[in-house]
Amino acid sequence: MPTAASTADYAYLLREQQAYAPTLAKSTAKERKEKLGRILRYLDDERNTQRLIDALKSDLQKPEVETRLSEIGPVYSHVKYINSKLTRWMEPRRISTPLAMLGTMNYVYYEPKGCALVIAPWNYPFNLAMVPVLYAIAAGCTVVLKPSEHSPATTEFMRAMFDKLFADNEIAVVKGEAETSAALTRLPFNHVFFTGSPAVGKKVMAAAAENLASVTLELGGKSPCIVDADVNLKNSARNVVWGKGFNAGQTCIAPDYLMVNDAVAKPYVSALCEAVTAFYGEDPQASDSYARIVNNKQFDHLTGLLEDAIGKGAQVVCGGRHDRADRYFAPTILTGVTREMRVMREEIFGPILPVMTFNNLTEVVAFVNRLPKPLAFYIQAKNRRIVKRLLAETSAGGTLVNEFFLSNANPALPFGGINNSGIGKSYGYHGFLDFTNQRAVVERKFLDLSSVYPPYTDKVKSLVRRIYRW
Q1: Exposed/middle/buried for 455, CB within 10 Å: 0-12, 13-18, 19+?
Q2: Which residues form the Aldehyde dehydrogenase domain (predicted)?
Q3: Last residue of some domain: 409, 432, 448?
């Protein structure tokens, strides 16, 4: 697919898709499944899979296992789930009819919103671009996909793939910098799906509002992990380090900070450091299981956070090493952190893990609720009362208990944030609805309303009073 190069080109591309959208809207479930199948068949070719693995290695030094687990695997999972449910999702859904509407049939008719814009991030550049595209295809929408400029190799892979599988008037990949995304959001798309930071998400939403386009915003924030005293320290620490170390911490749902019960804080921090060594060795820079920071800008952000924390009294108990030439940043555990430090005020998006302590859950709830609502909330605890209380007294896009990441491994679960961490839900039926207009339909089958037509006699008035009392 050619890369659009100007605002006029983008507008022309959208007009082409707008012209094709009515035809696409009439496509059947079978036809949409066939289109999803094209993508899996493309990935089934091991040569293509290897090209994708190489692209992610180039962009992020992402280990092959992490690529298969977090980039390729989810695409297969979502396609298979969509294909198993799509026929039923597309069928009109009957709604019960109240007595006042006797003689009518009521149902919801599902129609595509039309032309969708998907703006994808760099941290999981294949997964987070492909999954919304899959649901747009399922809904019968056209798509303009704008991948991140910070993952050029993966973008080129997707461009080549969609160029082979689809015409531009159905799915087109547009390359470019932030200005390209801004120009696209100003066009009259019917729906905009954006994954990125809250700051940019606000700009996307404001631009979409000019066209009254609906939006799905998958953002981020400071996702907490609460560790109670009753956990198995070794197992819990390994769980946390895996969640934080995956993709070098560049994950929107990675734990952004820990709050550990003071009774086990010291041994727990030791267990965290031991887990880092067990996973990545004495020198994680030499490990082929550890990714790199995406670019120098993000690297400098992390070093700035670390220097600020140390300057304000935080202690590095594990890691701290970094190498700008290699974009390497060691898995780093900090203690002695305070809320005044930048690591506790800004989203980290990297392998720095601040550790705070608490004496009771009231402290935890108060601290968490002072911050904007997070995308993910992690609880490491065996006591069910603690879990129930934290669920009842806090708010987050999603919650995992004694686990990390697996909430977005299940296509049937809704995924997304709340307020500052996102607007709207994706995945599964929720993902289908994201790109679908739920059209209310009322059909008159028998009887009519002539008995309440003017003139409004006493008989009519009496009838109207009785209708809503039945």
Answers
A1: exposed
A2: 4-441
A3: 409
- The angle, 0 to 180 degrees and rounded to 10, between the axes of the packed helices 46-60 and 29-44 is 70
Residue 311: Cβ-neighbour burial (10 angstroms; 0-12, 13-18, 19+): exposed
Q: pLDDT by residue (tens digit) across 202-215? A: 999 999 999 999 99
**Total number of domains constituting the chain:** 2
Q: Is position 459 within any domain?
A: no
Q: For residue 148, what are the contacts with CB-CB under 8 A and spacing of at least 6?
A: 120, 121, 122, 125, 155
Look at the block and give the residue holding tokens 């605890």.
381
Dihedral over Cα of 459, 462, 467, 470: its sign: negative
In terms of Cα–Cα distance, which of 169, 132, 172, 130 is closest to 151?
130
407-452 pLDDT, tens digit each: 678 999 999 999 999 999 999 999 999 999 999 999 999 999 999 9
Q: Identify the pLDDT of residue 469.
A: 76
In the DSSP assignment, the letter for residue 246 is: G
Residues 238 and 137 in one domain: no
Do residues 210 and 255 both lie within one domain?
A: no
Length of the chain (residues):
470
- Pair (146, 239) in one structural domain: no
Do 63 and 124 lie in one domain? The reply is yes
Burial category of 310 from C-beta neighbours within 10 Å (exposed 0-12, middle 13-18, buried 19 and up): middle
| CATH number of the domain to which 205 belongs | 3.40.605.10
Domain, as residue range, for 77: 7-219+419-440
Q: How far apart are CA 241 and CA 219, in angstroms?
A: 22
393 and 431, same domain (yes or no): no
Establish how many alpha carbons lie within 13 A of residue 316's alpha carbon, considering only the half-sphere containing its beta carbon. Answer: 18
Please identify every residue annotated as catalytic: 218, 252
User: Average pLDDT, stretch 301-318?
Assistant: 98
| Residue position matching structure tokens 């992990």 | 225
Q: Is residue 237 part of a domain?
A: yes
75 shares its domain with 212: yes
Q: How far apart are alpha carbons 240 and 353 in whole angstroms?
A: 10
Mark residue 336 as left, alpha or beta (left: phi above 0; alpha: psi -120 to 50; beta: remaining): left
